[in-house]
Protein 1
Amino acid sequence: MRVRRSTVIDAPVDAVWALLRDFNGHGDWHPAVAASLIEDGPTADRIGAVRAFRLADGSQLREQLIALSDRDRSLTYCLLDSPIPLMGYVASIRLKPVTEGDRTFWTWESQFSPPAGREEELARLVALDIYEAGFSAVRRLLTKPRPTVRAAAPPPSPPPAVRPPPAATGATLISEAIVVERHGGPEELRPRRVAVPPPGDNQVRLQQTAIGVNFIDVYCRTGFFDLLQLPGTPGMEAAGVVLDVGPGVTRLRPGDRVAYACPPVGAYADLRTMDATLLVPLPADIDDEMAAAVLLKGLSAHFLLHRVHAVQRGETVLIHAAAGGVGLLLCQWAGALGAIVIGTVSSEEKAEAARRGGCRHPIVTSQENFVPGVLDITGGRGADVIYDAVGRDTLDRSLQALAVRGHLVSFGQASGPIGAWDLDRFTAKSTTLSRPNYAHYTSSPDEVRDMAAHLFEAIRQGLLRVTIGQRFALSEAALAHQRLEARATIGSTILIPGWRS
Amino acid sequence: MPKIYISNVIPAPTGQVWGVIRDFNGLANWTPFVAESRIELGAPADQVGCIRNFTLKDGGRIRERLLALSDYEFSMTYSILESPMGVENYMATLQLTPITEGDRSFAEWSAEFDCAPGREKELVNFIGQNVFATGLRALAQRFSA
């Protein structure tokens, strides 16, 4: 059986071809396609390339490019795997210029063998839901009052808007994911396709829209923490929408917007399953990117400032890496609690970012040793509490900058392991030392929901401004780690699934 | 070999448009530049191989042979035997394709020919604009009312 649809798009033929020629680009323009990737590499114009994609209803398909002509502006592809019985489906797209008016004539046609009795239904599906829906989407995209070829700039962030709840599928789905096969540098973060089984008891399966990047992910990648079983997918923070729910889940339904910031690792993926109790429902005024950018760092800031040490009005607080993701939140929140905030940063640009975030005294550490600066600001007394996630490079001097009966909160080691310490050194100032572990402050779901509500309220009230300094495609996770480790990031870094740079 | 390609959207179902342009002797009915036309030797206008002999409104006379006619593909191909334009090996195709959205027609008129060196651009422009584009515009106009 043959299906043929054609239309005229009011845009130059080269603009339409630039859009349609990309065999992996349909995720950007076709409304039915939720996510797509080319198997075995990024090259979408190799004859034989296979695109694996997921429709908005959750079904998964694979199609292979079998002909592409820039002369004829045509491409032909066939269906390899599909839950819909379009046997032997081969389709072609062809564009021709309408010289009158500089428009484009677009033909989309196919041949396939439907099972007996389903001819009409499948012909309608192909003609309307695939071809005509595609025509309308491209027309909207290219005939807006703006330049006809898509800008090279990153696409706008995914809308937080209401999307139709995806249908429960019950099938194993293929996801784009970052897989670490052996511990090592950022290059060990490799894009792969992985199978995501349907959710088990008390689990939900998520379609993630934004993923938070945290320094703990680096520790997992290098093997410093053993949270990541190899080969495996790192990541502890993401936001998205519930795709389907397993038996026993009562508090969440498909379509609900949620986020999480906790183990088990596996957030660097398009789809994943998660225990329902670990998910925090998102209020309507917290969009997905914001949630992925702030939840883990914000919960950290929350327990660091309220539980590990309850910061009091008038206390002097020293925050290392004050322009980083957690640093900026600590500065703002500590400032809102009435503390005098001193921060260390590595550059003037970051000093400015920290200052804007409420850090009253930023100290650029590449220019000065921070100890005299802190003593100077505190009249020789030292800081009452020091939040130090830098570790090896700062901890010794942090002790020197601490007040008598001060509290040193060592919650990370970005510069390297702290090593063994002589406890006797703490008697010199009656120092209290804390080594909080994120998991121990976030293991109770009720407590996490409570802290998240507190965090969202602080954002709502304007006490916390979330800075998303960097966005990367999920496939560019290695680059994101490289920047983070090079201390070249400001604020939060997030990964966006389904993006192509 | 110079090539000409002109296309337009004709706002009518392809069967209807084809009914108008299929007549190899009917140029005077739908183009604004043909004064009168006849088929030589009294042949039917849809006999492949027949020759149309027509006069332009500017007085020029052209003889063209029908080389192919397809009611299946809505296309016709013809060559020029004699014309005042100074072209050789001139072969042209006029074809319709249905536009399913809106039940309209996509019309393409294309040609290839040889000519004296240096005249290519002038002839491509002249035939493309004054014959093909003008003809298709008139055809579109005919169905726009």
Protein 2
Amino acid sequence: MVRILLALLIGMSLGGLALAAEPVIPKAKGERCVEDSRTMRTSHMELLKHQRDLTLRAGVRGTKHALKDCLTCHAVPDAQGQPVGIEDQRHFCNVCHGYAAVRIDCFECHVSK
Amino acid sequence: MTGLSRRGLLLGGAALSLVLAPGLTLIAQARPAGRPASAAQRWGLLIDTAKCTADCTACVSACKTEMGLPDHGRPATDAQYLRKVSVGNPANGVERSVPVMCQHCAKPPCVDVCPTGASMKRADGVVLVDRHICIGCRYCMMACPYKARSFAHEAQSGQRPHNPRGKGTVEGCTLCVHRIDADRLPACVEACRAQGKGAMLFGDLHDPQSEIARALAAQPATRLRADLGLDPALRYRGI
């Protein structure tokens, strides 16, 4: 009896896991990202933070880790072909951040498309 | 300026100046990619209030459009980086309309009072708010004798990409750093030339050959509240 219950429970939890499918990353426009995927996945926030201080405080322009460039390359178009904003679940940043339930503050100030 | 050697600075300065012909040198203003702003330059503005008329608001409108400042119909709290102030001399009845914005002081009191280091001065003298670390305390707004800063009270949307701005942070004139860094004139100066009376002159105060430095050498100009000793980068004539 206990075995049957356990099997049922395991089956249900696996079913639950299967429902929360991994996010499907929208394709970017460019050929290559500024860094390899592994670095971007783990360190994109560090790169952006470093870049923001460099640009705003030191006045360095034209470097490769700019949020504006990320948004241009990773724009997700809507039905009309216009890029979607952060309020849309299809937004590039939202796809993973929604899945991981991590809130991003960037777009409180920065425009998201 | 930290981390930049004297040698590097001199080399940078040499690379920036482009010799066109003997005796004629054009200072290329746009920095190459990857180079920080340098203290070799100090950006400033000379405003001739005798040319500026009260009915013209070309600079104010251009600023609002360029920086994406919305109009909520609440002039007391709506963000304004640049405003026209009417001044008059009751003794002789002379009246002037004066564009007033951040004066980009060499000794900015807003930077002195900021508890987080968000209020800052760039190496080339442009005074900015680092909104990443601004906590919205508004000490800088109280410290500024020119009333040059605003506070974003509302959640924002549709900002311009070059001017991110959000609720709960202080903001002000950036002297259009995004334009200066790309070798363009600030939006107000451009509008004043195109639609206004050509009362604004922008340039490098540290370069003796620049138009603004030569104009200031030829004829003196005043600083607003010069008695405070803040050494603003904005100079005025006719007041």
